[in-house]
Design goal:
Number of helices: 15
Strand order of the largest sheet: 1-2-3-7-4-6-5
Largest sheet: 7 strands, mixed
Helix content: 25-40%
Radius of gyration: 34 Å
Strand content: 15-25%
Shape: globular
Length: 580
C-alpha cells in the first residue's frame, strides 16, 4: 500500500518523468523501464563517515549481516557501503525483487548475531585482498582520522565491536525515516514488507580538516600523480571536471606521451559539496615530466586559458545523456541519492538550461576554487616551486611527562604525559592528545598504538623504549577514553619487535659526556708540554752547539706523552663500555 509523498525538496519537478510516493513510511521513487526485469535500490543515509576510527566497519557489518539470509542465489544483488550512504540493490523479476527487499528489511530488524564473529573475519579478509591504491591516503591527509578521512583506514571495529553496538547501530541508522527506495517499474509492486523502526533523517557528517594551508602536497608512491579538491556542487563544477580530464589526456598522453591513463572525476560528497579527483600514471623515468605537465595543465585552466571548443565538446556530451532510452529509470539512482542527502533536485529541463548557461568565466572560477583547495600527491620530490605547501609532517606542540629513551636511536624519546603522548625526533615532535584520540589499539603484550583525530599516530612498544613498565601502560589505558580503545588479539612471540643495534650520533664539543672533555683537556696539556720541550731543546742546542743538542730534554718530554696516550686510550675504552 502506498500513500502520496509530500516533500519540499523539489520532487514535484519530476512529475511526468518519475513518480514519487511513500512505501510504509519510506520515500519511494519509481519509473518504468523497457526491460523484462526490474531493478530496485534501498538507500540509507549512513556510511563510513558516520563512524569513528574505533568503530570503523560497523555499517559494513550491518550490511553483511542483513544479506546473510539470502544465501546462494542466481539473482543479481549486492550491497555497498560508501562514505555517506549504504545501498542494497537487486535486479530480477517483480516477485524476486519483492522477496529480496523483504528479506533485507527482515534481516535489518533482526540481525543474525550468531554470524557476527564470522562476518568480522570475512570483512578483514576482504580488506586484506583489497589492498591500497594510489588514492587511498588522500582522505586521511585532508580530513584526518575522522569523518570522510576514515576511508583511508582499516575497519578497526571488526576486532572489538559487540553485538549490542551493532544492534543499536542498525536500530538507529537503518530506519524508515533514514531511507529512500527506488524501483524501475511503472508501479510499486504489491507484497512489499519494508517494516523498519521509526527514526530520523541524519544529515551527512560535517567535514573536518587536517590541512592548515592549501593548496598542499604530500609524497606518494612512484608511478602515480593524484590531485583532489573539494568543490561546491554545481553544474559548472561537473562540467569543469570533464574539461580537466580531457585536458590532462590531451597534454600528458596524446601530446607528451608521458602517461597511459590521465583522467578526472566529479563525485558528490554531501548535499553541498563534491570531490574532484584527477589522476595520471607514469613510468619512473618520466615522473618529473608528468608532474610538470600535470601542474602546467592545472595552471593553464586556473589562468582561464580554456578554449570554447573544450566547453562545447563537454556540454554536447552531457546533453546527449537526455537522449537515453528510459531516461526516468536511468535517472532514479541519482535522484534518490539527492533526495537522501538533501541536495536540490532539478528536472531534466532545468538541468539542460543550466548546462547551456555555463560559460568560460564559470569554468575559470571553478578552476581557481579547485586550485585553492587542492591537495596534490606526487612521487619523490616536492612541488613547492608550483605553490603547493608540504602538508604537516609533525605536530606543533609536545607534552611533558615521563621520558623514555628509544633503545634503537638515542635521538628519539617517548614522552608519556597527563595530557597525551609525544614522540620527539630530530626533525620534530609527533603528539597525540588523549582528548583528541580517535583510537588506541591494545595488545595483551602491552603494545599500544594511538591515532589522533589529525591523523598523527604513535606506537608504544614496551620492548623498544627504556622504562615503559606495565604501570606506565596502565596509566595510558586509564587516560584514553574507553570508547576509543580497541582490544586486539595476542601476537606470536616472533611478531613482538625487539630493539635493533642502537644508532650512535657524534655529539658536538661541549654537549657530550665528561669523558671526552677530560680527554681533550689532557691532550691539550700534552701538546703544550711537547711544544715547550721542543723550544727548550732548540734554545739549549743554540747556546751549546748545534752539533750537540740536549736530547735528554726532548726524550724526557716525549716520555711524559706516552702515559698520557695510554690514559686517553683507557678513557676511550671506558666510554665504549658505558655506551654498550
Amino acid at each position: 500500500m502506498t500513500t502520496e509523498l509530500h516533500d519540499h525538496n523539489g520532487l514535484a519537478v519530476l512529475d511526468g518523468l518519475i513518480s514519487h510516493t511513500t512505501t510504509q513510511g519510506i520515500p519511494t521513487l519509481y519509473a518504468p523501464s523497457s526491460g523484462n526485469e526490474i531493478t530496485a535500490g534501498l538507500f540509507f543515509r549512513v556510511g563510513r563517515a558516520d563512524e569513528t576510527l574505533a568503530t570503523a566497519g560497523i555499517t559494513h557489518l550491518v550490511e553483511h549481516l542483513a544479506l546473510h539470509r539470502l544465501g546462494l542465489s542466481d539473482l543479481h544483488y549486492n550491497g555497498a557501503t560508501a562514505n555517506a550512504y549504504t545501498l542494497f540493490h537487486v535486479t530480477g523479476s517483480e516477485e524476486e525483487v519483492v522477496a529480496h527487499l523483504n528479506t533485507v528489511c527482515a534481516g535489518l530488524r533482526d540481525l543474525p548475531m550468531d554470524r557476527l564473529e564470522t562476518e568480522k573475519e570475512i570483512l578483514r579478509t576482504e580488506a586484506a585482498g583489497r589492498g591500497s591504491g594510489p588514492f587511498s591516503q588522500l582522505p586521511l591527509w585532508r580530513y584526518g582520522a575522522q569523518g570522510y578521512g576514515l576511508s583511508s583506514y582499516n575497519e578497526l571495529g571488526t576486532w572489538s565491536l559487540t553485538p549490542d553496538q551493532v544492534r543499536q547501530w542498525a536500530q538507529t541508522r537503518f530506519t524508515r525515516d533514514n531511507a529512500v527506495l527506488w524501483i524501475t517499474s511503472g508501479r510499486v509492486p504489491e507484497g512489499l514488507d519494508l517494516t523498519l523502526p521509526e527514526g530520523r533523517r541524519f544529515p551527512a557528517p560535517a567535514a573536518t580538516s587536517a590541512l592548515p594551508v592549501t593548496p598542499a602536497h604530500i609524497h606518494g608512491d612512484d608511478g602515480h600523480v593524484v590531485f583532489t579538491s573539494v568543490l561546491r556542487r554545481s553544474t559548472a563544477a561537473s562540467v569543469f571536471a570533464d574539461v580537466l580530464g580531457r585536458a590532462l589526456f590531451q597534454d600528458l598522453r596524446q601530446e607528451g606521451g608521458y602517461s597511459y591513463s590521465a583522467e578526472a572525476d566529479y563525485s558528490p560528497r554531501d548535499a553541498d559539496f563534491a570531490t574532484l579527483t584527477a589522476y595520471a600514471d607514469s613510468l619512473p623515468q618520466k615522473q618529473d615530466a608528468v608532474i610538470g605537465g600535470f601542474v602546467d595543465t592545472l595552471a593553464r585552466l586556473r589562468a582561464g586559458r580554456i578554449d570554447q571548443s573544450e566547453l562545447d565538446s563537454v556540454r554536447t556530451k552531457f546533453l546527449k545523456m537526455y537522449d537515453t532510452p528510459d531516461l526516468g529509470a536511468a535517472s532514479l539512482p541519482s535522484y534518490a541519492l539527492s533526495l537522501l542527502l538533501g541536495h536540490q533536485i532539478l528536472s531534466p529541463e532545468q538541468h539542460r538550461a543550466e548546462l547551456n548557461a555555463v560559460t568560460l568565466a564559470d569554468l575559470h572560477e571553478v578552476a581557481r576554487e579547485a586550485w585553492d583547495g587542492g591537495l596534490l600527491q606526487v612521487p619523490g620530490r616536492g612541488v613547492d616551486w608550483a605553490g603547493f605547501t608540504l602538508a604537516p609532517q609533525f605536530s606543533t606542540t609536545a607534552v611533558t611527562g615521563t621520558r623514555h629513551q628509544s633503545l634503537e636511536d638515542e635521538q628519539v624519546t617517548l614522552i608519556i604525559g597527563t595530557e597525551g603522548v609525544t614522540l620527539t625526533t630530530p626533525k620534530g615532535p609527533i603528539t597525540v592528545r588523549y582528548d583528541a584520540c580517535a583510537a588506541m589499539t591494545a595488545r595483551p603484550d602491552g603494545a599500544r598504538a594511538l591515532t589522533g583525530h589529525d591523523g598523527f599516530a604513535i606506537t608504544v612498544e614496551p620492548t623498544l623504549y627504556h622504562g615503559v613498565t606495565p604501570e606506565r601502560i596502565a596509566f595510558l589505558d586509564a587516560a584514553v577514553p574507553a570508547a576509543a580503545v580497541v582490544r586486539m588479539p595476542a601476537r606470536e612471540p616472533d611478531q613482538i619487535p625487539q630493539p635493533r643495534k642502537r644508532t650512535a650520533t657524534p655529539q658536538p664539543f661541549g654537549t657530550g659526556r665528561p669523558t671526552w672533555a677530560w680527554t681533550l683537556a689532557l691532550w691539550l696539556v700534552g701538546l703544550l708540554a711537547a711544544i715547550w720541550g721542543l723550544l727548550c731543546a732548540v734554545i739549549t742546542a743554540e747556546e751549546a752547539s748545534a752539533a750537540t743538542p740536549e736530547w735528554d730534554v726532548v726524550t724526557g718530554v716525549w716520555a711524559l706523552e706516552i702515559p698520557l696516550a695510554l690514559m686517553t686510550w683507557k678513557l676511550y675504552q671506558a666510554r665504549k663500555r658505558r655506551r654498550g
